[in-house]
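Build the 3D complex.
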Amino acid sequence: MIRFDNVTKSYKNLRPALDDISLEIQKGEFVFLVGSSGSGKTTFLKLLLREEVPDSGTVWVAGRDIGELSQWRVPYLRRNLGCIFQDFRLLPNKTVTENVAFALEVIGRPRTVVRTQVAQVLDLVGLGEKGDRIPEELSGGEQQRVAVARAFVNRPLVLLADEPTGNLDPATTQGIMKLLDRINRTGTTVVMATHDVGIVDTMRRRVVQLDQGRLVRDQARGVYGFGEDMTVSSRGVPAISVAGAADAGYDAAGDPLTGRVATVRARRGTR
Amino acid sequence: MAVSFEYVAKETATNLWRNRMMALAAILTVAVSLSLVGTALLLRQAVNRQIGQWSNNVSLQIFMDAGATSTQVTSVRSTIAQTPQITRCSYLDHAQSYAQAKQVLAGSPTAIAALTPATTPTVFKCQLKSPGDAATVATTFNSGVPGVYQATSPSQSIRVMQQVTNVLQLILLVIAIVLLVSSLVLILNAIRMAIFARRREVGVMKLVGATNWFIRVPFMLEGLVQGVLGALAAVVIVLLSNIGVSYLIRHYKVSVLGSAVLPVHDLVVTELVVVLIGVVVGVAGSSVAVRRFLDV
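Done.
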């Protein structure tokens, strides 16, 4: 579904934001992209959206080299990629329904299709009753659900999430993660950049870690920490299974907050 | 497609309304500048018609008596042939001459009513080798040649008038161009503000894969609407001023200026040019704005 072949991207006067990244993400995978600020997570997502073009290397999405796309075809690429962000990016003067419908209207879907699909997706995210509210009247979690609905309403192949829980409290975060998990189960590939240790440790999905633009870890069922002293796998093959520590995290999975504490303790234990 | 047409119309209307002061400024500037363009064009046509009618590209007109006999006409024709300063002559018979008189006197219907083809003098229209000879040649024909009513040459004053109107026209056009440029900048700025006001929507549209043209069209259309509205206002202004001038000419029976009253055809062409310039200015202004400030 997604493949990076030796991708390097630099901005002006800085070390590369992404340095020779190669990795492959299969259809239907759920991948966490972790790493500190400035590690290249956002650049990674921007390259997928073709908001940026790599300096060298190739980015493949759904079997296409997206560097080869002519400018006018980029919008059609983006119709296959749903996007959500930390700051939701909803339109404040439109209702929930209008916000979601907007995504279909502007790509020219007929009105009947818009109506049925919007109703469906709002039910899916659990906001069927709140279609007439405006974003301001909703909680942060609900706003992010609207954003998820907007990203998913066109049934994209891939859902990209850039710190989607960065503005949310742990309980709400869990709700959003359940929703993303559900979307992932429909066969949609999910790539989520995050700082949230708790989520990553709880979900036990593939973890790709970037550090200063380099790929430093790629683990099939990873947790947030442990990046530094692990070897890098290629092409999504799990490098190391983190038996003891990971189990400690997994036990506390019911509550992300205590889960985080448990993992930290577990990490100390192994050291 | 119906959806997107409705969408585009709605978006354009919303933008214009949200930005109404800016839009109004742009529209008014377009209106003023295009009024000047229209006025300059009409002035040029009116003056050219009038002068053309007066001189008719002919350096000398020899009017015969209305009742001149054909022998007299023949003898004048041979005199003309023997005059070395005259290069070429054409003769208008009663019917042709009457038709010309009707044009010349278009502004004064009463004068036309008084004429019939039979009472209209026939005329020789002659071209001279050098316009400077006009006065001398005219004098020869005015000194009692039988059947000749009067020989006239366009006076110096026509040339002066032509020069004055040329200068006037130039001034009008320069002002008009300066104003057109400023209206283009105003439209550009109005569109830029509209883009800024809608940057969230534009961001979302790009994200969900709206095509570049889909994003651009409402803004382009907004510029077009401003240009066209300004042009329509200018059309009305030009029309009113034309009606006003025609009325003055007719009311005061300034029959010498009869030809300055323009026929409908000329007026329509001028108004179309004005609208076309409005369209061009609107589209140009918004295109530049969209290209520079809407990075899609």
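DSSP finds ten helices and four strands in chain B.
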